[in-house]
Amino acid sequence: MATTTGVRKSGYKPSQATIVLGLTLVLFVALSAGLPGFLTLGNFFTLARGVSILGILALGMAVVVIGRGIDLSQIATLAVSAAIAVTLINAGAPVLVGLFAGLVLAIAIGVLNGYLISVVEIPALFTTLATALFALGVTRALVVPHYQVFLEPGHDWFLALGGTLADGLPVPVIVFAVCAVLLHLFLSRTVLGRFIYAHGDNAQAARLSGIATRPLTMLEYGLCSAIGYVGGVVMVASTSLIHLQIAESTMIFDVILVVVLGGVSLVGGRGNVVSVIAGTLLIGVLLNAMTIMNLDVQTQDMIKGAVLLCAIMFDSYVHPRDEETAKQGD
Question: Residue span of the signal peptide, if any (predicted)?
Fold first, then answer.
């Protein structure tokens, strides 16, 4: 009987999400010990609320990035759709009708992005940047000339989406958890979810295997916009207003930072909901700490830019582009 010799290696290699969760724990402990005002109940709920909204947006972005795309229009889409929804509600439309109209608009913008990218074959970077500017310009010209829309009083159940439960738990945390579970089930348990991974891993091979990659691309961008719109609705419920200037802020880069840092690879086909949660927690804690320290905007941008650059470099190191990947185009 033949026997094998040699030393067996354990083979365990922590995932990027696991590493990021470990860094988050270390950072949380350090800030709790050294930053006054961080380890308080009030700040904890503030952190949870901020993390939830950022996480919802990152879930939507993750769908596109797993499919080897990028959506720079996500924040503009949610701002425009939420602003029109609030405008309809203020004009007397039932809340559900107004919210549904905003959802339809968000999905339409996402599907348009997917169509231009997959059928017209315009690069995703330029497509989503152009649709963001166009949607924002049209909305400002025709609907919201003063950048912001306030939700008029009398919609208590809607505002409850941004409130807290009796035990103090912010409702946005529950919304984030529900979105995360649903997206996890979609990506891991459905055929379309597996198709998205196959599409991101190798679009040409997916096409040759019979996957309709063009409709799939439209689905990816439509889901990104729809999930982002949910984050926009939570924003409105939390503040009773929507401000179009968020589309001109650095929030879109915060979302991309969360996705890439958590382990959703820019080369496509890799990452999951756990990756998004890990990146959301780390960036949420970092942003919260910078706010407590009252760092100016320029310093915060430098820190976030450095972290994003490091995350992209690490992603390139872990998932290098080979010749086959390069042929797929960027």
Answer: none
CA 243 to each of CA 62, 84, 140: distance values in angstroms, whole numbers, following the listed order = 24, 11, 11
* pTM of the predicted structure, to 2 decimals: 0.89
Q: How far is CA 206 from CA 203, 214, 216, 240, 326, in A?
A: 5, 11, 11, 44, 16
Look up residue 170 and give its two tokens. 């912010």
User: Scanning the structure block, which residue is given the tokens 């958590």?
Assistant: 262
Q: Is residue 206 part of a domain?
A: yes
Tens digits of per-residue pLDDT, 132-147? 999 999 999 988 888 8
pLDDT 10s digits, 125-180 = 999 999 999 999 999 998 888 888 898 887 778 888 888 886 778 899 999 999 99
Count of domains forming the chain: 1
Q: Which of 179, 163, 192, 132 is nearest to 280 (CA)?
A: 179
Distance CA 261, CA 312 (A): 8
Whether 221 is in a domain gets the answer yes
Compute the distance between CA of residue 106 and CA of residue 111 in angstroms, rounded to an integer: 9
Q: How far apart are CA 281 and CA 279, in angstroms?
A: 6
